[in-house]
Amino acid sequence: MYRKFLSARSPLRLLEKGLHGGLGKGNIGLVLAGPGVGKTSFLVGVALDDLLRGDHVLHVALDESVSHTRAYYDTVFDELASSTHLEEEAVVRAGVDRRRSIRAYPEAGFGSGKLREAVKFEEEAGCKPGLVILEGFDLCAASKQEMLDLKAIAAEIEAEFWLSVACPDEKVPGIPAPIAELGDAISVILALEPEPGSVALRALKEHDNPDVEALRVALDPKSLLLVRS
Questions:
Q1: What residues pair up with 205 in beta bridges, in sequence order?
Q2: 3 state SS of 117
Q3: Predicted confidence band of residue 2 (pLDDT cuts 50, 70, 90)
Q4: What is the band of 8 on the pLDDT scale with cuts at 50, 70, 90?
Q5: What is the pLDDT of residues 73-98, one digit of tens each?
Q6: Angle of helix 39-52 relative to helix 89-99, nearest 10 degrees?
Q7: Is the model more confident about 25 or about 225?
Q8: DSSP 228
Q9: pLDDT over threshold 70, residue 229
Q10: Which of 117, 130, 149, 193 is most solvent-facing, going by the fewest CB within 10 Å?
Q11: Residues in a beta bridge with 209
């Protein structure tokens, strides 16, 4: 019951309807947000959505420790458990922890080769990820070839990749030029923006769809789940 309830309130369910089925395996998604708006919480929420549905997730954290990243999962999970009155919390948490792998690397020197090694290790352990969160990757400094390499890995393992980029202001005026230059290497781009009593999640790019203005939802500022109607 809890998983169905959480799934119904996940922003991914509503966005999947507008995003022609969602991000899709083999594709890269990106979330843009200003300082403190909730980029990491959103990415962790995306991961928890998959984990609660029984999928395996690989979370790669650059220039952050494993313990720091795990603490973020605990915080978001605790908020979800509290807001949805989760039963058998310990059992559900154990399942989440079992299906999630966190790997930390220094940003300097990290590239597609390191990611391939991490993915291979997970596959050999019987935990092939259906979702990869790549946090801390400097997307604005990445070349298009680097992004195409990441997209190739996503296609090879049939996984979705989600990344984030920090914006200088709370409002996101549009797709930053360095990101726009990456072209089709990124399939979906979302923006998180604070609003009175909620956080707005809106689409800036949705595959080849030229009209993305209608793709906008309001999220609870604490749980980043869909605001109850």
A1: 189
A2: helix
A3: very low
A4: low
A5: 998 888 878 877 777 888 889 999 99
A6: 100
A7: 25
A8: P
A9: no
A10: 117
A11: 206
Q: How many other C-beta atoms lie within 10 A of the C-beta of residue 92?
A: 19
On whether the CB atoms of residues 44 and 76 are closer than 8 A, the answer is yes
One-letter amino acid of 46: V
Locus of tokens 């070349």: 143
**Banded pLDDT at 1 (limits 50, 70, 90):** very low
The DSSP string of 118-171 is: HHHHHHHTT---SEEEEES--GGG--HHHHHHHHHHHHHHT-EEEEEEE-SSSS
Residue 58 phi/psi, 5-degree rounding, is -110, 120
Domain boundaries, the chain: 2-219
Q: Quick one: fold of 2-219?
A: Rossmann fold (3.40.50)
DSSP characters for 27-79?
A: -EEEEEE-TTSSHHHHHHHHHHHHHHTT--EEEEEESS-HHHHHHHHHHHHHH
Joined together, the tokens standing for residue 7 give 């799934």
Nearest Cα to Cα of residue 159 among 23, 13, 66, 16: 23
Residue of 1, 9, 19 lying closest to 203 (CA atoms): 19
For 78, the token pair is 């605790």
- Rounded to a whole number of angstroms, the distance between the first and last alpha carbons of the chain is 19
